[in-house]
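Researcher: Next sequence.
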Amino acid sequence: MKTKSFSIPKQLFVEAFKLVKANAGAAGIDRETLVDFERNLKDNLYKLWNRMSSRSYFPPPVKVVPIPKKTGGERILGIPTVGDRICQMVVKLSFEPEVEKYFLPDSYGYRPNKSALDAVGITRQRCWKYDWVFEFDIKGLFDNIPHDLLMKAVCKHTQNKWIQLYIRRWLKAPMQKAKGEIIERTCGTPQGGVISPLLSNLFLHYTFDVWMERNYSEQPWCRYADDGLVHCKTESEALEIRRAVEVRFKECGLEIHLEKSKIVYCKDGARRGNYRNIEFDFLGYTFRRRKCKNTKRNTIFINFTPAVSKTALNSMRKTTKDSNLRNRTDLELEHIANWFNPKLIGWINYYGRYSRSALYPLLRHFNKSLVAWAVRKYRRFRQRKTWASKFLEKIYEENPMLFVHWRLGMQGPFA
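Model: Next structure:
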């Protein structure tokens, strides 16, 4: 009886499918959806296990999907097929435990038990202690990682031949455009692949994290995927580190995005120097000087602290506008609450963690959308917008638990 080249547990494929299904996602170039794959789940998973175990699995091309950026232009996502996502998840489940224990505490992106809010929180504390921040963004990280350097890092952390083999194959898998054009790849790992975030983290672990610990151990840093910060005591320290980081990234095949990278002075009530850059955006928050209240002393002071960014607010307003809520006269208010509450609680939980009051313009915009809905739904309000506002105020008084922000005392005005 012929034995398999690799010993890969079948149960890994079952677990991988559950995780891929939970993440949802679109079909790849074969147009097979998760629903399609699940119709013959047992046989489909067996085929993937059989091919990977016999080293005969070759990833199909990755589907190219252009996604508009909030700041303009496009970001290219690579969408693997459902089967390929499952295979990538199998490798991730096996490889991640081998490398995760080596990653440093100040790397927050795409890691178990770490979040973007953790990164925002530690940055908030450090901005109080350090006067200067070097903020950087890596230009096209997922598109430009050199394969040879990445595989050197992979092989350093695993001797497992099937993990090495399939990561190599995924790195070389071509991309396919909508009209069928094939794009060969010589560097990078597709943004959208299951294994890509882990591989990019591993690459930056050696390119930046370990390098910082070795060369600038006194400067605290924080990195979330391709966005990073280094805290400095003086402007000259920040300038020196910026120059050194630019050189380091070039040595490793990467480049700093000049328009999104800058040196910032953390100006507040005590730090009153005059400098050009006195605020920065990080993970949907804008860090800048703000009025804050000392609840113990009941006094107001100026602090350098985060609150939801204008870009994030505009994006959330756009989501509300694009939902066409004001024209959904077929719905009752309870239906709208069931529809929007998951979005609202997500926004409030993330962007309301720090300086929650900065979310009020968004919630007022949402309430005004409800007023516009009431005007269109009820004929008696057509010429009396103020009546629609009073109508919703009365509903709030009678049912303050209907919408998430009402429950939290963030109802805001309706007029």
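Model: The chain has a mean pLDDT of 93. The CA atoms of residues 37 and 185 lie 28 Å apart.
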